[in-house]
Amino acid sequence: MAFPLERVLIVMPAFNEQEVIASVVREVRETLPGATVLVVNDGSADATTERAREAGARVLELPFNLGVGGAMRLGFRYAEANGFPVAVQLDSDGQHNPADVPALVALLDASEGSNGVDGADVVVGARFTEGDNYEVRGPRKWAMRFLSGVLSRALHVKLSDTTSGFKAHGPRAISIFAREYPAEYLGDTIEALVIGHRAGLRFAQLGVTMRERAGGTPSHNPLKSAIYLGRAFFALAIAFLRPRPKTGVES
Question: Which has the higher per-residue pLDDT, 109 or 112?
Fold first, then answer.
């Protein structure tokens, strides 16, 4: 691994996840001993904070719901302020397998570490890879395929899952995203990739296995899925129209 687990911050955005947050936090801590687990309570109206703390996580609370992007920006700022060179985004509903984290982190650029590996700044944990049974249908599937094709060409790297919420970020990505991470719907995935590319970040992809939700309420219902396609196109347009980040890095 490019970085030891003691230097890895696991950021878990959570909105009304009291049913599962404790078991997910415990699994992460058992699977990744030494890593720090940070739950960002995104304006929950339930006992998410209490359950997460009881399970051993550090918790930051947002006063109202900002969405995954807003929660992750706070997570990046926490990582930067507390000296963590790696921040891994992990769902709080149990769909992401924490056992995949070491492989994602291993592909990060460790130039600030001891071995000088020339890796990526952001590693995307991709669904829809060989051996993974995760499926989507209808408008969401069409949108994901379109976005993957456009963004793969724009970023000059093949990405089959540009809306994945399972990603590892190295020091340069943390520095950029602590200030520039978008909070809009789909901005935390589509727009963040474009922002990172324009700032000179390098991307890689690694296949991961998705699991069923351990509980709670899914973020997508039939109505949301029906309008996903239009929102995806809008998010892509905004991503390319958005001004370049103020802080750049050498590519």
Answer: 109
CB 107 within 8 Å of CB 204: yes
Residue 17 has pLDDT above 80, yes or no: yes
Q: Which candidate, 150, 11, 162, places its Cα nearest to that of 77?
A: 11
> What are residue 41's DSSP bridge partners?
14, 61
Angle of helix 68-81 versus helix 171-180 axis, rounded to 10: 130
Cα 157 from Cα 119, distance rounded (Å): 13
pLDDT per position as a tens digit, 19-66: 999 999 999 999 999 999 999 999 999 999 999 999 999 999 999 999
Phi-psi region of 48 (alpha: psi -120 to 50; beta: other; left: phi over 0): alpha
In whole angstroms, give the CA distance from residue 188 to residue 64: 18
Considering only CA atoms, which of 3, 71, 77, 72 is closest in space to residue 35? Answer: 3
